[in-house]
Structure formats: structure tokens, C-alpha cells
Amino acid sequence: MKLTAKILSKLADNVSTDDMSSAKYVISTAPEELAKICMRDLDPTFPDKMAQGGFLVAGKNFGCGSSREWGPIGVKAAGTRCVFAEEFARIFYRNALNIGLPVIECKGIHETLDIGDEVEADLSTGVIVNKTRGTTMQGIPIPDFLLEQVEKGGLLEILKERRNDCP
Amino acid sequence: MGMTITEKILAAAAGKPAVQAGDIVQANIDVAMAHDGLGPIVFKAMRELGADVWDRDKIVVVIDHSAPPSALLHAELVQDTVAFVEDYNIKHFYNMTGVAHQLLPENGFVTPGRVLVGTDSHTCTYGGLGAFSTGIGSTEMASVFTNGRLWFRVPETIQVHVSGTLRPHVMPKDVILKMLQILGVAGATYKALEFTGECIENMSVDGRLTLCNMAVEAGAKNGIVAPDEKTRAYLKDRVTKPYTEYFSDADAHYTQIVEIDTSALEPQVACPHSPANVVNVGEAAGKRLDQVLIGTCTDGRMEDFYAAAHFIRGKQIPRHLRCLILPASNEIYRRLMREGLIDLFLDAGCIVLNANCGPCGGMHEGLIAKGEACLGTHNRNFKGRMGNPEGEIYLSSPATAAASAVAGCITDPRAKEDRQ
Questions:
Q1: Sign of the C-alpha dihedral, residues B165, B325, B39, A77?
Q2: Using CB atoms, which residue from A24, A29, A61 is nearest to B189?
Q3: What is the pLDDT of residues A10-41, one digit of tens each?
Q4: Fold annotation for A2-165
Q5: pTM
Q6: Considering the domain boundaries, does residue B98 fall inside one?
Q7: Domain end point (choices B260, B291, B324)
Q8: Considering B230, B260, B290, which residue would you say is the last residue of a domain?
Q9: Is B26 on the interface with A (CB under 8 A)?
Q10: Chain A, 60-89: which have a CB under 8 Å from a chain B CB?
Q11: Gap between the Cα atoms of A73 and A95, Å rounded
Q12: Which of A9, A68, B157, B255 has the fewest C-beta atoms lying within 10 Å of its C-beta?
């Protein structure tokens, strides 16, 4: 599965799920409402930047902290089609793939991608091509059983399918 | 090659004779916990799936985040939670009687060798009793609720070897803050932290729960302490079913060993805005405080309140400051009452909150304003977590927090002659 889009936001290390969905701003758990408050303390313009649909690049330990799924739900609903990061916090990594938000972990990616760069990402091989700069990076591919989940829109869709398989 | 405790528990849960770090296993889950904060996404998914729960005995639902609710959304999350419990006939339900991470150990859901998951990152707390436990997301929990299984990548283990004896007014919290300073907030990402050594052997179960509670602050999947006589004594009147104890083999593989010598360890303070931004208390001393929070699932057990009471007894909290006392459960609240500690705290001008998550997650009961500073015994001081992003959150042990509450500023809890 290949995705092509522009980098629309670039964030630093240790972006937490509190940054994505601060409890004090969460007044509704509808995805579009979580998108509006996403990263508010960190970058209030984040939802506007992502609105056209594109990629997000971040540093180390992206998604650290709480296990709240509001974080990745907000990131996805804001328009993020894939997140590239140096390293993901483990609960966020699983949550993102479980709700159908593709993520690729890739050492050295932060300095090779900039806002505005046109990027092609191959989720199954983990290869990230920066078409603007002509560079290629090898990230960690998403394991097949999780990729299937992402392609179908998340774990819930898989669970629904399985229930239909065996009435 | 030998195995670590974590590898042995996951191997048993996956029905395999042996596993090693890096293997992906399907593990049977012994206990699955959801709370009112992140449970409603699980409940909605269950209803969409039209699925029943896989085993009523193994599911625990707790209302502890919005307990009681202070915003309309929170009221709706609580409403969703109660409706799920009623509609699905959930057996084990705790409605605002404490924080999950205290209620599960207290009520016998945690034993050595079990695999527990919860919709909360601090689910790793239960490793203090020799269990494998970790936080997961809501959608994944819907899957666990329906089939009782979950995939795990078997983590590499970092051994945290803690030698020596804690000096007066130095607490388990100081040990874990020191470890965070050494490892950093991502130093154990995807890995297990196994606490060993003389200091851990001498540490109470209360202290071990504090250590494991903060494993996730280093990015760890789980924290774990080998079970021993102290574990068995804690479980004696709480657990009736037999359980299996696992111990790391002498030739188990550790990916890294962190050594902490507590004989020279001073009280530690995590400064804004990271739990790994840790200094000796002297370096933060004198910082004026507007709020002190003593308690939570990190440090809200009896040993913590005894340490705090030592400094607060007979004193007055300065009038500019609010000092919040937050017991981790009603069992602890009652013991505080019976032992006269509630009176002691009220006499000093403290505010005693009901047992719940309180202001730790920034939901209610003690948010901070722009420019304010809070010192808390909780686990996380991310920017803006407890209110205004231009407020400051510091973390410490209950002894340091209580000494600081009385002084009105960050203060070394040790007597002058004990400082070096």
C-alpha cells in the first residue's frame, strides 16, 4: 500500500497524548471535535495545517503518556494520512494502527523531511521517498497482520468481519 | 538460554514452553480493566459488534477518572459506563471507590504470574506484585473483551538493580525518579523493566507498586518485581485461588543493566516539563508553590501518608497554598480516618479529596493557572497536563511534597545534619 502526499506539519521529540488531546479541552469525543483541539497547546494552527490532508513528521517518543485513543483519533481526523517518526511510544503505535492511522518508524527521518516536501510512503516495505529532495529512507515496515487492519480501516472492521464469518 | 520473569509469564500465557524477546505471541488475558475515561470507546465498539464479553469473571470496570463528573462530557462518559455495566451484567464494578490501580491489587485481581491489561497507561503498576501488566487502547480492549486474547511482542528486559538501603526521608519514589533521570523518557520504550537488588527486597509492596506505576514514564511496556514473602503476605487475605510465581533464571538475558546505589541517593524532584528532568531536591529548593498534591495511584497508600503526616503533624499550610490529600482508594481513606490522619491533615489546613484520579490527568479537583506551580506525588508532569500550559508541575516523593507544603516552597525533607 503506497501513499503520496505533502508534509504539512513537523513536530519535535516527546509529543504526548496530552498534547494531542488535553483533557481540559476535550468536550466531545466525536473525531471531528477531537481534531479541532489536536495539539492546541503545542501548535494551535495544527488542525488548519492538516486540513487539506497530508503527512506529519515527528521526532522521538511520539505519542508518549496516556493510553487515550482520543490522541490518534484526533490526529487522523485532522487530516493526517500517515505519521513518520524517529520512534513511537508503544501504546500510541498500537492505537494508531488499531484505528487505521498508518505510522512508520524510521531513524533519521526527522532531518530528511521538511514541511512542503512531496513524499511517497510504502507501508508494506517501510520505504519513504522524498520526491522533492530525491532522498530515500528505510523505515520499519508495518507487519502484515497490522497492515491488513490499516487497509480495512482499523481493528474494529476486522472484528466485525470475523463475527460475520462465524455466525 | 534462561528466561526473565516477563518472558516466562508471556510464554505460559501463550501456551508455549519458551519464548524470547522479539517473538510475537498471542497471550490469554487473565484480567481486563476498563475505566470511565477510555472505556466508553470500548463499550461503543462492543455494541457495534453486537458481541458479548468473553468471561464475566475476568473483566473489571472502574469509574475513577470523572469521579464524580465535573463537566458535561464527563457526566456522559460516566453514564455510558454505568449503562454498559448494567446491560452486559458486568460482575466486578467499582463506582467511584478508588483508582483502578489501587482497587485491582486490593481486591485480589492481581497475583504473581497473571497477565493483566487495562485502558490506562499506568496499568503497569501491577508488576509490583509479580504480574505482567500493561496499558492498551480502547479498540484493542474491545477485541480483548470479545475473545480474551491479545498479541504481544515479547519485550527485551532492562534490569534495574537497586542496591543499598534508603536513607531517612528518601522513598521508593526517589528511586524511580533517579532511574528516569538515568534512562530518560524513552529509555525503555517497548521494553520490560525488572527491579532487583537488596533495596527492592527490603521494599514494601506499597513501594514496589510506586516503582512499577512509573515504568511507562520511561516508555516501558511493563515493570516487574519478583514475588517474595512480602508479596505473599499482601495477597494472603485478598486472593483465594492458587497462583504461579515466576522468577528470572540466573542465565536470563538482559539487554541493559542499570545500577542505582541508594546509600548515596538524595530526595529527587522532577522539574517541568518531563518526569525525566530530575534533580537532587537541593537544586529545586526554594521554588514557591501554589498547590501540593499528595496521593494518587503513584503515591496514595498508607506508607506514603505516614511519610507525609510526619511533616504536616501540628503544622499549618501557608495560606497562599492549597495542599490536596488524595487517597488511592476508600480502603486507604478509611484507614486514614481510623488512624486519625484525616484529622491531622484537616487540622493543618489540607483539603482531603475523595479517592479518585483527581487533578493528575487535568480533569478536575485542582487545575493550575498560568504562572502557578504545583508539586505533586503523581507520575506525569507534561506541560499543560494539569491546567494552563504556562503553569509548572514538579514531581517528588510524599516526604518531599509534605515538607514543601508546610514550607510553601520546594524543600529538602531531611534534617540539616542528614544532608551531605
A1: negative
A2: A61
A3: 999 999 999 999 999 999 999 999 999 999 99
A4: Aconitase; domain 4 (3.20.19)
A5: 0.97
A6: yes
A7: B260
A8: B260
A9: no
A10: 60-61, 64-69, 87, 89
A11: 9
A12: B255
